[in-house]
Amino acid sequence: MNKPIIDVLNGSARKPPPVWLMRQAGRYLPEYRVLREKAGSFLDLVFNPELAAEVTLQPIRRFGFDAAILFSDILVVPQALGQAVTFAVGEGPLLDPIKDRTDFERLTSHVDHTVLAPVYETIRRVKSTLPPTVALLGFCGAPWTVATYMVAGRGTPDQAPARLFAYRDAAAFDVLMDVLVEASASYLVRQFQAGVDAVQVFDTWAGILPPEQFARWCIAPTRRIVTMVRLQVPGAKIIGFPRGAGSLLPRYVAETGVDAAGLDWMIDRTFAHEQVQCSVPVQGNVDPLALLAGGGALDRAVDAAMEAFAGGPFIFNLGHGILPETPIAHVEQMLKRIRGS
Asked: N or C end of the chain: smaller count of CB under 10 Å?
């Protein structure tokens, strides 16, 4: 049986377009909050296959989305490379920062898949339960974005610590990126082997880079990941999401070889349609704050995205993750607007 999202990734236009939301399994759902409390900590939830599978499936049961996205986090890769990672309530991720090349000694040269084994078990559990038309999506963080957290030890407003590191010692930063490219590609291959139908590469901090750095730290590593994954998984479907890429997005698509491009809410829709959707399927674009606002603002945002992109291969999504305070009724409103019911 056809999976609408895979049809789109193969270049077909579907009416209405298939839909899923970044962070669709998360804090806006009361059933998620119950399991989060039961697990004890965020990482305990991520690494508990029974609970993580249930969290992955919750939004499918409630909303009937066309894809389930694996419940995990981009920072499991640094953890599997030997870097200490914790999540503090109200603070987000905290890592033992990598300040210079001597700190690389704390890392292993290859990802430890025994650390990630619970993630692969979660995939197998979800895959065995999903309806046949619903795709299962895996993911990883792009090397640049993951490196920004590894260097700073936390999220910062503009991820300046990694940018400074890369300027001051580009050769050392290359070493870190090489490790992350290999680890990320290996991680995605294992996800495909466990049963995902497609994957997304999240480059959340791509937009803070100037063009020459964007080419070096965003495009080139992603291209290597795509090549390495497809050597082991021929035909692997890969969505690239370089948030904030703007006018550099067509170059990113052309040079990385991704199958589809995620669109943030900041990009001009006419530009994205004419310069990106002409080459690959596109996904996303609706401002998460429009979903939070609801009402007429949400209807207008949905209509604008549909008008711009639904004539071609398009996956409806947000321009970034759903916000925790988003009312469930607004998600239902959005789905009715998309599906015309």
From this structure: N
Active site residue 190: no
Q: What are 107-155's pLDDT values in tens digits?
A: 998 999 999 999 999 999 999 999 999 999 999 999 999 999 999 999 8
- Answer yes or no: 36 catalytic: yes
Model pTM?
0.97
What is the structure's pLDDT at 314? 98
Structure tokens at 217: 């730290």
Catalytically annotated residue among 7, 14, 27, 216: 27
Find the catalytic residue in 28, 32, 66, 73.
Answer: 73
Which of 28, 32, 120, 149 is catalytic? The answer is 149
Chain mean position to CA 323: 15
pLDDT at 283 over 70: yes
Q: Please state which architecture CATH assigns to domain 4-339.
A: Alpha-Beta Barrel (3.20)
**237 contacts 198 by C-beta, under 8 angstroms:** yes
Q: From residue 147, give the alpha-carbon distance in Å to each of 75, 199, 253.
A: 10, 20, 21
Judge contact between 74 and 139, C-beta under 8 A: yes
Cα 339 from Cα 341, distance rounded (Å): 6
Closest Cα to residue 272, out of 237, 307, 300? Answer: 307
252 annotated active-site: no
120 is catalytic: no
pLDDT of 89: 76
Whether the pLDDT of residue 71 is over 80: the answer is yes
The DSSP call for residue 219 is I
Instruction: For the chain, give every domain's residue range.
Output: 4-339
73 is catalytic: yes
pLDDT for 339 beyond 90: yes
Q: How many residues are given for the chain?
A: 341
For 149, what's the count of Cα atoms within 13 Å in the CB-facing half-sphere? Answer: 27
CB 298 within 8 A of CB 314: no
Which one of the listed residues 32, 36, 243, 252 is annotated catalytic? 36
Catalytic residue among 23, 125, 243, 337: 23
